[in-house]
Structures are given as C-alpha cells and as structure tokens.
Design brief:
Blueprint (H helix, E strand, L loop, with lengths): L1 H36 L2 H6 L3 H14 L9 E6 L2 E15 L2 E15 L17 H4 L3 E2 L5 E2 L17
Antiparallel strand pairs: 1-2, 2-3, 4-5
Length: 161
C-alpha cells in the first residue's frame, strides 16, 4: 500500500511539472506573438484595433495556443496601444469542462505615435552579434568575423580547402 501511495505521489508531481512547463511554454508563445504583432512593419499593415486582435488570435492558434476573441483585449487611445491577453491552461478536464486551470496573461503597452517599436531613433549600424563577437585573424591574414555582412567586408573561412 505504501508503494502504491508513493507511486501516486510521483505521478502527481510529474503531472504538476508537466502542467507548469506547458503553461510556461504557452506564455512564451503568446508573448512572442504579441511582440511580433507590435513590430513596426506589422503595425503598418494593421489599421484598427480589431485587426490587431484578429491577428493575435490567428497567430496564437498557429503556434498551438487556442484563444477566443474574448480572451484578447486591444485598446487604442491617446497614442498608446494597450494589449491584454488572458487565458487559462486546463490541468484537469472532466466531461469536457475544465475543473482545474492555470490562469495566464500577457500585458503590453505600445506607443503608436513614434512610428518605431523597439528600434532606437537612429539606424543601427550592425547586428546584435557584432557587439558580442570580436574579430579573429587567420593564418592567411584575412579577417573572419561573425558580424553582420551587410556592413563589413566578406570574410573567408578558416577552413580553406
């Protein structure tokens, strides 16, 4: 009987860990969807708050998180676009109804008057990788980098055949 009890405890702990990991996965997916919708090129395509709401619901369904339109709230007012997505991850389902669910939400505010979402006012001269890497020289004297090739000269490989 003791073994059966501890077996149930182990299964319950594993199921709780599974639920926590799946809810975290869903939160990161929805957070990414909202960030993608707030990207400047996407905001230019979406004219109204209802268009933004439909795009969030469509993209969330695409990444595997089923959302209803009533779970997404988009409010546009005085230069600020406020997005709130609130949904639940069902842990226990009995006869099609959720008995135990984990509530999740993502809230974002975006300044709409500036025309840029996350970019600085001046153009970036290199990718983020250029700040994290440093140049290395090969035996042939050519400089090899992991920097953005748009702003630097093309590099040769260390492994010349």
């Amino acid at each position: 009987m003791k073994l059966f009890f501890w077996g149930l405890v182990a299964v319950a702990c594993c199921y709780a860990a599974y639920g926590a990991m799946m809810s975290a996965y869903q939160w990161f997916q929805i957070h990414g969807v909202v960030d993608e919708v707030l990207h400047p090129r996407n905001l230019r395509e979406l004219a109204t708050a209802s268009d933004i709401k439909r795009r969030i619901v469509r993209d969330a369904t695409t990444v595997g998180v089923p959302l209803d339109e009533r779970e997404v709230d988009v409010v546009a007012g005085k230069g600020v676009l406020a997005i709130r997505v609130a949904w639940t991850f069902p842990m226990l389902v009995y006869q099609g109804e959720s008995v135990l669910a984990i509530p999740l939400s993502v809230k974002k505010e975006h300044q709409v008057g500036a025309g840029r979402a996350y970019r600085p006012p001046d153009a970036a001269l290199a990718s983020a990788m250029s700040f994290c890497t440093r140049a290395r020289s090969s035996a042939l004297g050519a400089t090899c980098t992991n920097r953005s090739q748009a702003r630097t000269a093309p590099a040769t490989s260390f492994f010349v055949s």
